Records
---
Amino acid sequence: MVRLFAFVTALLFSIQVHAADIGDDGLHKTSWMRDTFKDLSEDLEEANSEGKRLMVIIEQRGCIYCRKMHEEVFVVPEIRKFIEDNYFVIQINMFGDVEVTDFDGTALPEKEMVKRWGALFTPSIYFFPQEVPEGLMASQVAVANMPGAFGRWTTFNMLNWVVEKGYSSDEPFQKYHARKFESQKN
């Protein structure tokens, strides 16, 4: 029993060490999030120059589902590394006032941009193609959107599906995930 307690304590401590910090805005902050001017066209250009995909995550202060993603999913070493290696991540505060410039040139405070995109849940994660047609807003060009918190394998498989450009194939994400999940649960 003492051994089990020591193992669980060590495991919980290691998770806490790697969990994201909370910023002054009440949102989780990670090393893989980028601090940019939140101009999505510029961010996409920078992501492309690094060979990464642009990902925008919308969160809010006190969101229990955001906390779940940061403390239970994003801390999984395989997921954390995959994000670091493959994604250029921008965080948007659902009720924030920082100006965001959309792909179509519209500039609004975060809270207004979130409304414009129709995002209702946090976290909401938008994934973007490497090229965006002119005159369209982010919610129109996103290749995938994850509204809400999902578990380890759904999140990991979505991250992979986007990098593999699964959205351009005949296999929808749900079938991709079911196929991958069969081998992952063992």
---
Amino acid sequence: MRILIADDNAALAEGLAYVLQKSGHVVEAVTDGQATLDALERGRFELLVLDYGMPRLDGAQVLGRVRARADYLPVLLASARDDAPRRLAEQGLVVDAVLCKPFSINAFESTIEELERGICRSAPRHAVHFGPLVCDPADGSATLDGVRLELAEDERRLLERLASHHGEAVAADELAQIAGGPVEPVIARLAERLHATALRIVTVRGIGWCLATA
């Protein structure tokens, strides 16, 4: 999963990020509320680990803006304030799980695993559109101008993720996780399959790749 950790304790945020990265997740850590919103604006995340007391914007302000978005982002509230869940509930703000600080690494990992299982079960299976390309995760198809592309499963997964980012670069490590191994050979095969089409895969130096229209 792509996970964003928002906590004003930089050492704690980095420690939690390290734990998650060891489990294969792609993680970014920020230390204030505005940086949280900026990160969510820049990239796509599948889970937000959110502290309540943060500078610039607190957890309630961040969550209010997150919940105003069209897409639903699962949120794990990790706070030392016992009243934080009640305060959020009074504002009509819903979180998906709560951990009270201090918590053990085992409790943190177990909560993340439970949320990941729930996210996978409830993830929307809507088709992803990018120009003439339609990737439908419900039936595992990818069509270009209505013609089905014959792709290997790792190629299809990468194409779907690239399409879902609407022309934004996707990090190499994220794509490697999706490919289940070295990503460069899969990207090369996919680029070759798209060579004569209206789509192309562009290398973004220092980041990864993006899907673009020719």
---
Amino acid sequence: MKKSTTLLKPVNSFKTAKLSLIVGAALLSSTLALTSTPALAAWPFQVEGQEMPSLAPMLEKATPAVVSISVVGTHKTQQQNIPEAFKFFFGDRNRGQAQERQFRGLGSGVIIDSDKGYIVTNNHVIANADEIMITLKDGRQLEAKKLGSDAKSDIALLQVEAENLSEIKLADSDALRVGDFTVAIGSPFGLGQTVTSGIVSALGRSNLNIEQYEDFIQTDAAINSGNSGGALVNLRGELIGINTAIIGPSGGNVGIGFAIPSNMMDNLVKQIVEFGEVHRGVLGVSGRSVNSEIAKAMELETSQGSFIEQVMPGSAADEAGIKAGDVIVAMNGKAIKSFFELRAKIGTIGANQKVKLTIIRDGDSEEFTVTLKQDQSADIAAASIHPMLDGAKFNNDSKKQVVVIEQVAEGSPAQMIGLQKGDLITGVNKTRIKDLAQLRDYLKDQAGEVFALNIVRDKNSLYLMIR
């Protein structure tokens, strides 16, 4: 039977991926439902003189920190090109023009800092949003601003200004064990705030093709369309994950849900707070997950870990002394089960951070301390650099010290101003530009101004005027 995965998306914009992924969003209401597991005996209360197990005391503290999010935004859609047979009459004036269509979406979020008004949610909940409104459990509605996001791990950070907010304390998600009890808080199918319970079914779930960086907590706590960005907590009411995806037919729950671990989320949020974006750390290796065949061929005693096939010259791994053929089995004392898990942890921990890797080499266990370098690929959204660059995909060429245009979307603003795939941005006005960070910082002060991009195309230099 074909397996379908349901990625939790804003309710009005469902899309299908490799496993039929749907991401759900929270809807507004005030109903509180509780599906409890009989084994969850905690916080007893009195009924006719007898103590009864209940999660209510914990939930009374945790649920006010889970909010509903409503967004209004616009999607850019490509206008259909005129068939060749009719261009004689109409010309080609409409070719490549983009149209905007308004959309509305709903989701959930979690208050992680009540003093600063920080709210964490999924990136897909607020993507392309022009207006973001937060509804608290007490009914207050607040306008939120986006501080930053990371599409590759599906995390976004919002901020509101309000008093008397409740927050959820973060737990150490690395300390989770399979079998630990979990409680999911969200608003599925428009029913309002709903609470369900279950256990940690698995840890380190990856290679699901949901996000680019995956290290999910799997739980059987009921998660449905409407829970996107909601909280997964432990029995102390501490946040252990952000609910993100499910596997199930037609968006329904079958007991397989996924949450982004709180430690991963926390690493990303700290970078967004400091830099306004994620400064992704890179190790500089390629490899694959250890399996029985690799273990046999390389005479390994372990059947788990990350087998290193190549170490990039000058990379963080190279400078630390890691070699091809090494097997990374732990990071900072925590076991690494696969290459995907290693990639997710490294890719979200942040640039310039030090990590301790445990490596099996020639049958012996060794430890290496590695200082991660910053990923120079295009994590910075083009639209966040300048609206007229929206639709272009950038990368840094560290050897030539230029910004490379890797891709330009059809009908996008970037195409309209004349950018093409393969263009090299070498400067703005008369200022030399060497990388994306310099480009972004320079254009920050050019709001509303006319400026010229210095482009090298096919060895020819030209200027593109942008206003």
---
Amino acid sequence: MWNRPRFDLKVRLTLRVAAISAACFAAISAYFLVTADREAHARIDGIAAIVAKSLELQQGKVQWVANPRSDFPNLDPVSAYVMTPGLCLAFRGANGEILQRFCSGAPTPANPPPQVFAAFYRSLFDPGREAARPVIVRGAKLGETVVSVDPAVQTAEAWHEAGRLMIALAIALPLLCALVYAALARALRPTRMIRTGLERIAANDLTARLPPFDLAELSAIRDVFNHLAESLDTALAERSELTRKLIALQDEERRHLARELHDEFGQSLAAIRALAASARQTAVQDCPSLLSECDGIARTATGMMEMLRGTLFRLRPPDVEELGLVASLEGLVAGWNGRSRGETRFAIRFDGAFETLPAAISASLYRIVQEALTNAAKHAGATKVSLELTMRADEIALAIDDDGRSSDPAAKSGMGLLGMRERVAALRGKLSFEAGPHGGTALRVTIPVAADRPVLERAA
């Protein structure tokens, strides 16, 4: 199954903030560029108006003094006041011919704009566009003044303005990302506690609780989490109690059935054996041909008694409270080794002191081992079964490995495995049944001996 790549939430949010900040800086830069372009055009329009007004005054003065020698147009007086680097002043006559033109030189910029920026700026703003104003005297149009700025100078000025913003962006954006990441890391720190709590819930530790959080959203999650944990803990406790009662009732019914079989069926088989022995003695004297039938009846009754004895042993095992768990399991394994006649070899090993275990845990462990051995010998066809029971500080671990058929459905399902699961669930333990590393099957059971768990502590 294809899984989508996962990204850290802090990194993702930081990248989004950085993208939004960069877009904001780009919008601000575009605003400054548009404003600068408008101001530049407004400036040259103003210069064009001033030059046109000056030329109109010049022509009016010429007509007023009736000077036959006219030096109109004369841009020298006005150019001294309005000329800036890269600016061009010109007067275009009514016939479209340029009669006079002044242009100031532009110094070579220390940091020329990149070619990419220059091409981009020229494609958007058309630097060097002319501003023209008509020169009208007494209702007659004598021509027009033309003002323009060198495109390279205007592009360099725009780059200078944009460059300052880019420097500010280059400094502010990493700093902003670092601050946002730190703030998110601090704000999302409680999520690690939430994850730890969920992991403990997944591990069947329903005593996990979350402390109060500062953020309202996380506090709402905390309330739901704690309520869910309490509900699950209560439901599991009720289920465990019900399972315990059902198992106790089942064991009581087994003991009752064992007594009935022993008292009724066992006595009947004993009587049949006695009658067969008496009939054999009579047949020896009166009818020797019946000896084989009498012996057959005796053998059948003996075999049925052996089967009954095994059934009674499974229905009503030895008292674990009196013999102890270790002795009971050793007797169980020895019985299986005796009944298998070498077809299946059973071995058991203990690690720890099991004398102080509660009676309920000892009885459940005995029944779990009994069902597991039955599954391995009868359903999986195993030839070698090894058991290991380990007592640790806070739990009991049971490991049963065999070399049988791990894919046999009977070995993985049925009332035997269901009974084991019910007993493990009643003790709030865990059970896993899977294929062994070297073939066969592996049964793992862990049962806690101390159910109390500390509540999650609040991180500093």
